[in-house]
Write a structure and sequence with these properties.
Blueprint (H helix, E strand, L loop, with lengths): L12 H4 L2 E2 L2 E2 L21 E13 L4 E12 L6 E5 L3 E7 L7 E3 L8 E5 L7 E7 L7 E4 L10 E4 L20 E9 L4 E4 L2 E2 L5 E3 L2 E12 L6 E4 L2 E6 L2 E5 L1 H10 L3 H12 L8 E4 L8 E2 L4 E4 L12 H8 L7 E3 L6 H19 L1 H22 L24 H17 L1 H14 L3 E3 L1 H11 L4 H7 L1 H6 L13 H16 L4 H6 L2 H9 L7 H11 L7 H13 L6 H10 L3 H11 L3 H14 L5 H14 L2
Length: about 625
């Protein structure tokens, strides 16, 4: 990839652009930032410190139109302001007084988009960009009423990793944090929510509908700026937590997530105060491509976690944990995603242990280990994509997405815990989140801090072998495989089924979702059709309302070419757009010729309903298989 971007300079308090409860927080130490290969902006020369949106949503044209006002801080007084954009239509650029500024949209990079370069006058500290998004903006998904649970259209944005530039001209790198505010105009019948404090929950009269205002006075990276518009109700589940959802979903969502306040309290007991004010949850329509997205103040969540028994709420614990690991201390570049996700998986599991017990947490760790082994096997033992610190140059970060930064990263912290003990690690993490709050983090900086603050003993440092964990592929020899005693009984039931055709009907009724998942995952060989029919009749798998269980059953159906599951498979792939489910199912299908035909038939129908994140992934699956 050919592009011109100087290395970011030494980080100063200005680059941190962060606030504490009482004001500015200075970095605990200065360090040299790496080049972010996924941004064409130049924050080392001119950096955005505040962003103010004023946009109107046009559901007919599927565009957002208006302006963004950017407050800037200039390190180099002669340098232009450079912003990341992708598919943005720029209508004009001016300074804070309204005087036009010269600008150019430079050569487009197929992955990174087009840099918008604005020439600044000597005194310019504010820049206003008038613009419109395109209907195809990758961050923005416009849903028709048939894709929702009601009679109204819906809009949501998904910025991580590098998609915010498709709906906001910005410095789209996790190394740059800014405070932000916004005014969004939407049709009268719809409600606007954003990842910020809601200043006008009921909106104000405006041309084109109603205007809603928001503010976030704690600096965040651009990928955490998020917007949703739809027919939304709200239900409080705690003093500082609640659920937004479409009316048809609201009751079940609020019941599912009623333990949210307890989760917040457990997280605070572990690693310090929650600094974002409210922790609300927005349940999106099924097209949302992820399980959850940790947008500050308002986590975005898939409806596929609403199982009716709280069995999948680890996802909420995960997004809550991001309020510390990710939103508070943030990976400076996407090559270090493990600093966000690995820490969060570890933290999530600790929250689940507090709320639901050690057995539950152990089972979750085993299921995570299984997910990790699947990806390690798929990549290959020596693949660089199994390192914690990744080489993502020339690639979209989403294209390297896997369980490795999540589960291998969490295993790294569990290995540290095994060396120093839980009390010492907890004290270290509490200090880490406080010391580096509102700052970007790199693998090198974290390892230096770990060595200097926790593993100061040479023998302990050698025992960890941190460099191998972070920079070598696969799992180090000191990785500790988790075990669950309760899964041993599940394995016995699996053996009884395969060896003696003994259906586990009674045991299944008593098992938790974790045990049921483990059982289905262990049915990884071929099975006769009549046995599959009887298993389905006994356990009600095809009609399961639990998305995780149905997903595993559909994989079994594909592996065994079990046609009675194909109708449910089609419905599942067309009904929801969560990439975690889509990718493995399509990958399973394209392993056979009959499966390729079925995959293409279903995908031709489903692709227009998927978010760009999901469709790009499935495009690659089918193209790679020649389907």
């Amino acid at each position: 990839m050919i592009r011109s971007l100087r290395s970011l300079l030494v980080l100063t308090s200005a680059l941190a652009a962060c606030v504490d409860d009482g004001g500015a927080r200075l970095p605990s130490s200065e360090f040299s930032m790496p080049v972010d290969v996924h941004s064409l902006s130049r924050p080392d020369a001119v950096r955005v410190t505040h962003l103010d949106l004023d946009l109107t949503a046009d559901f007919d044209a599927r565009v957002l139109t208006g302006s963004v006002t950017l407050d800037v801080e200039r390190t180099d007084p002669t340098a232009p302001l450079t912003l990341d954009t992708q598919g943005i239509q720029v209508h004009g650029v001016s300074d804070g007084a309204g005087a036009p500024l010269r600008y150019t949209l430079e050569t487009e990079d197929p992955v990174l988009g087009q840099p918008l370069v604005v020439e600044l006058g000597e005194e310019a500290k504010r820049v206003v960009v008038a613009y419109s998004t395109r209907a195809e903006a990758e961050a923005v998904q416009w849903l028709e009423p048939r894709q929702t649970s009601g009679d109204h259209p819906f809009l949501f944005t998904q910025g991580q990793a590098i998609l915010t530039r498709s709906w906001i001209p910005c410095q789209d790198t996790p190394a740059v944090r800014q405070t932000w505010s916004g005014r969004i105009v939407a049709p009268e019948a719809l409600r606007v929510v954003m990842s910020a404090e809601q200043l006008t929950p009921d909106g104000e009269p405006a041309d084109g509908g109603r205007a809603y205002r928001f503010r976030l006075d704690r600096a965040v990276p651009s990928y955490l700026i998020a917007l949703a518009i739809g027919d939304l109700g709200f239900r409080a589940v705690g003093a500082r937590s609640g659920v937004f959802a479409e009316p048809a979903v609201l009751d079940s969502a609020a019941a599912e997530f009623e333990d949210t306040e307890r989760m917040i309290e457990a997280a605070e007991e572990l690693y310090g105060p929650y600094l974002w004010g409210r922790f609300d949850i927005l349940v999106l329509p099924p097209a949302f491509p992820f399980g959850g997205m940790e947008n500050p103040c308002l986590t975005f969540a898939t409806p596929t976690v609403i199982a009716g028994d709280k069995s999948l709420v680890a996802l909420i614990a995960h997004e809550l944990a991001h309020s510390w690991s990710g939103n508070l201390v943030t990976n400076a570049v996407w090559a270090d995603l493990w600093l966000n996700e690995g820490f969060t998986v570890y933290f999530e599991n600790r929250i689940m242990e507090v709320l639901y017990g050690e057995d539950d947490a152990r089972m979750l760790r085993v299921l995570g280990w299984q997910d990790l082994q699947d990806d390690l096997d798929a990549f290959g033992a020596t693949s660089p994509d199994t390192c914690l610190h990744l080489d993502l140059a020339g690639r979209n970060p989403d294209d390297a997405f896997s369980n490795v930064p999540y589960e291998k990263g969490a295993l790294f912290l569990r290995t540290v815990e095994g060396i120093v003990g839980r009390p010492r690690l907890d004290a270290f993490l509490t200090d880490y989140f406080d010391r580096f709050a509102f700052q970007p983090m790199t693998s090198a900086r974290f390892l230096d801090h770990l060595r200097g603050s926790l593993l100061t003993d040479d023998a302990e440092w050698a025992q960890l072998d941190a460099e191998t964990w972070v920079h070598a592929p696969g799992l180090p020899t000191n990785a500790d495989q988790p075990h669950s005693a309760r899964f041993a009984a599940v394995d016995a039931a699996r053996d009884a089924l395969l060896e003696n055709d003994a259906l586990p009907s009674d045991a299944w009724a008593a098992w938790t979702t974790h045990e049921r998942l483990h059982f289905l995952r262990r049915l990884d060989g071929s099975m006769p059709a009549d046995q599959l029919v009887r298993l389905d009749e006994a356990l009600g798998l095809t009609d399961s309302g639990n998305s995780e269980l149905l997903f595993e059953w559909l994989r079994i159906g594909i592996r065994n070419h079990h046609e009675p599951t194909f109708s449910a498979l089609r419905g599942f792939l067309v009904r929801q757009g969560r990439r975690k489910f889509l990718k493995p199912l399509y990958q399973d299908l394209v392993k056979t010729e009959w499966g390729k035909t079925l995959a293409r038939t279903i995908y031709d129908e489903a692709r227009p309903l998927y978010h760009a994140v999901s469709s790009r992934t499935i495009d690659q699956v089918l193209e790679g298989a020649g389907a």
